[in-house]
Amino acid sequence: MKTRLISYAMGSALGLSIAGPALAAEAEQGSPAAKTFIEMVEEGGKNNLIPLNPDDASKDMWSKPRDFSKDDRKPGIINVQRGEFGMAYVGIPTFFKAPIALTPEDLKVGKVDVAFMGASLDMSSGRRGTAFGPAAMRNSGIYLPWGKGFHTSSEHTMIDPLQDLVVVDYGDAPVDFTSNDRSIVPVYHLVKEIAETGTIPAIIGGDHSLMYPNAAAVAAVYGKGKVGVIHFDAHIDAEAGGMGHYLTHGSPVRRLIEEGHVPGKNYIQIGLRGWLVGEDMTRWMREQGIRYHFMAEVEKDGWNKVMERVFQEVSDGPDYVYLSIDLDAFDPAFAPGAGTPEPGGLTPRELFPVLRGICAVKQCVGFDIVELNPLVDNNNATSHLANRVAREVMNGIAMRKKGITDPKYLHPELTNHK
Ligand SMILES: [Mn+2]
Prior knowledge:
Layout: H1 2-5, H2 8-13, H3 21-28, H4 37-46, E1 85-86, H5 104-109, E2 114-119, H6 133-138, E3 146-147, H7 161-164, E4 167-172, H8 180-196, E5 200-205, H9 211-222, E6 227-232, H10 252-258, E7 267-272, H11 278-288, E8 291-294, H12 295-301, H13 303-316, E9 320-326, H14 348-361, E10 363-370, H15 381-401
Parallel strand pairs: 2-4, 2-5, 5-10, 6-7, 6-9, 7-8, 9-10
Antiparallel strand pairs: 1-3
The chain binds manganese (II) ion.
Manganese (II) ion (MN) binds next to loops.
């Protein structure tokens, strides 16, 4: 228990074996946390600290993008659907049947608001299958038609984010399916590439180790310490590591805080339960200034009070927000197809208004929906829910774009028939 709680910076200073080779060398020079995990992996690859066969022609083939300049087309968004309208199961399965974009120029010329990208990682979770999350999400929606004349407006705001925002599918980050550590680096660069154009990156996972490269990339663009992370999860995901790895799906919060991308005071966590954390851990979280909301607090004070507190904390926090939504924040009754389901969770009716409201109050600069595992899903319930989670987040973004910043805004005609 004790070693699990010791940070890797502290660990290496104390000479504990949780420090990796690059970090151990740094510790001798007296600056144990001088490098980010991303830099360590990049250097490790370059210096062959990760033993890879240099003669293997496929060593880096996974990470090389195709040469888009050979496509001979003008930059802008590309509609790949043959029809103007269809059912969810008809057409080329992009996210929300949205058009695609492949380059930063496409995003700029297309004035894109939200760019979805897949990140098919599941190697840092003990329960595999979330690598298939992006494919399930592209095929989600079940009965929902798409395209001309069909509105997907929220029954709460009468705003249709797919009409009011320009949304694209930006494709998937390259992954080395044998290494989570190597895969994190290209995810970081692709998220950063999107954010640098002013477009909101929306990352569909994949396991929750992704929060680390995602939020670090957004913080690199908008300023370290300037982004608040609103983290929906059954689990704290703030472990020091696991099995000797710096990054697992249980430790992204720890990496982000210790490397200074997101200070603890900028963290708000909602839905926590399960997986005994212990008082040492809650003390560490309080010392960092993390505002955590366990289900114990919901049981004591009721959901509405907790929701009010969250809106107040978001209002008082940084101007930019990043949402990280682990589907296991929902009860397994609603999200059976999650990486690590925990009974006793939140309902969609409880979480949807929070997702919408946060993005109305503050400028959303990115979000991820992670731990979608179609291999253990029940009749596509979880991918359908994930689809709706993305729509609710985008609904909040669209509200703000229209000048609605009241987190509890509801369309008056939908709350009163007189
Ligand atoms: Mn998580």
